[in-house]
Write a structure and sequence with these properties.
mainly alpha; two-stranded antiparallel ribbon; 2 strands; globular
Amino acid sequence: MTISMYQASVPRFVNILGNLMNILDKAQAHVEAKKLDPETLTKYRLFPDMLPLTTQVLIACDAAKGVVARLAGIEIPVYEDNEKTFADLKARIAKTVAFIQSVTPAQIDGTEDKDIVTKRGDKETHYKGMQFLLGHAVPNFYFHVTTTYAILRHNGVEIGKRDFLGNP
């Protein structure tokens, strides 16, 4: 049995982004129950040189939509990156899920050897499709979702492994 590029990407991203939305719901409930300023969590960093929770969520969304679009050979949607609240972040996640679910298996399957080039500043990195998906995009996506989880857990939000994993 083989696993397709589509199955290794879109359903996995959709699942974890849904779990992330549920985790953010619990964070919002935590803030309300403790009568905290929501920015206590949305602007929190695990360490001063790390990015805050809000940016972690934005990057996770960007990683998911970016790899799906690149593999499908379509334009990557550009979002404004102006989210500040839990509701804003959940809307960003929902918009990302809607986009990646709009891409069909036929657009992604068979892209294992597709040339993918990413640019960061003036540096280009060259990948093949499978290498980009499994060696870069998926780990990057999970890194930022995990960091979001860690920020919330560190701040007392009652979430656990089952919240992170959901029902794959």
